[in-house]
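Teaching assistant's notes for section 4

Start the section by putting this record on the projector. Ask students to predict, before seeing the second block, whether ABC transporter ATP-binding protein will look compact or extended. Collect guesses on the board.
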Amino acid sequence: MLSNLSSIDTTIKINNLQVTYAAADKPALQIEDLTIPAGQCVVLCGPSGSGKSSLLKLLNGLIPEYYPAQVTGQVFLGQLDLRQASVEDLSYHVASVFQNPATQFFHTQVLHELVFPCENQGLSAEEIAVRLEEVNHLFQLETFYDKPIFQLSGGQKQLIALATATMQGSPILLLDEPTANLYQEAVHKVQGVLRKLKQEGKTIIIAEHLLAYLTDLADRYLYFQEGQLVADYPAGDFLHRTEKCRQDMGLRCYDAEPYRRAIAEQASQFKSDQEGLSIGNLSVSQAGQLLYKIEQLCLKPGQVVGLVGPNGSGKTSLARYLVGLEVDKASQITWQGKALSPRQSLEKTSFVMQDVHLQLFAETVRRELTLGQKGKQLDKALISRFRLEDLLDRHPVGLSGGEQQRLMIVASLLADKDILIFDEPSSGLDLAQMKELAKALAFLKKEKKLVLLISHDEELLAMVCDKIIAIESLKTV
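Reveal the predicted structure now:
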C-alpha cells in the first residue's frame, strides 16, 4: 500500500466560496456549501469554463499563489485553511495532474521525474525504492525509465504525470482531464490504478469531460455551470438520468462501447483510394527507431479519415512526415499526382498539434487567428461558434487548455489549406464544442478538403469519420 505522508484529517469543507480572478468582472467559481469526506471519488463535470479547473487550482494552492485571485469564504482541509497554506505545504496532502501534463515536468528523463517528488520531500533512498516498486507495479513503466520525456507521445506523458503524482504519496489526488489523449488500453490501466488508490483510502477528485470510464469508480458527480456548483448527485442518481437530460446538461456519453464497436468495424473495412494524397515507401521513425513502413496509401479529398492506435505507436510521427517537419528521402508523397517537397507539404497542410501551446506565437487571440494571412478577415460566425468572441484581446498563453484548443481549430479553419491534420482536437472540449468541431469537419469535407483526424475520442470518431485507419494495419496497406 502506498503510504500517506499526510497525518491530518483530509475532509474538504467549503462554505460561501467565491473566486474572482484579477481583472475579472465576475466570479469564476462559486460554491455555497460542499463537503468531500476522505476516501471518496468525486467527478467534476459541466461545460468548459464552468469552474471545474478553478476548484482544482484552489485545492492545490495554485490559486491565489500562482493565479492571482480574490478568494472569499471558507476552504478547509481538515483544520488547515487552504487560503493561508502555501503550495509547498499542500504538496504533502495534495498531488495534481494538470490538463497539459508537459507543463508539470521538472526533468528530461522519466526515472528522474518519477522520483523527484520523493526526493523533494526528503525521503530516504530505501523509501523511494519501495515506493517506486509499488508505483511500477500499478503502471508497468519500467521500460520507460531511461527514456527522455520529450520523446514520449502525449498519452505516454499523461501516464508518467499520473504515476509521478502517485509517487508523491499524498492522500488527495486531483486530476484534470487525465484520459483525454489515452488509447483504450491505457484508459483501462488508469481505471485500474484509480480503483486501487480508492481502495487504499485516497480521495480522488477528477475534472473530466470523458465520463464513460468513471461509471464504476465515482461516488458523486458535482455539476458546474457558468462558474457555479449547481448540483451534487450521488453516482446512482446521476447515471440514471435520461439521454436527453445528459445532452441538455452538455455532458459527454456515459457508455463508449457502441462507438468503440463502430470504429473497429470501420477500421476492418478500410480500403485505400486511387487519388488525392498518395504516400509510398515511407519509413516512419521516432528518435531514430523505425516504427513501421507504409508501402502504399492513398486518401482522396472530401472525406474525414480517422487514425487510431495505441499511445506511442506513431500516429503523430506520421503527421510530422505528411506536413514536412520530418523527411524520409526514399519516400514519395504526392498530391493529385504532383510530388510534394517538404516545403510544399508545409504550405499545403495545416497541422493542429496535440500540444497546442507550442503553436501560439502572437500577443492576442485576434492576431493569432490571422497570423501569416495578409488581409484575412475574421469569420465572426466561426469565432462565435467556438466561443472566442470574448477572448479576442486576451493573450493566448493565458487561456485554458480547452480555449487554446478552440483557438487553434479556428485558426486552422481560417487558413484554407487542402489538407488538414488534427491531433486530438477534442481534448478539453465539452459536448457542445465537440459537436461544433464535428460540424466544422463536415464543412471541410463539403469543401473537398482532406481531413486526417488523430484521436482517441471514440464518440467524435464515430460521429465524423468516413474511414478509419488502424495504425497497426499500416505495415500491410
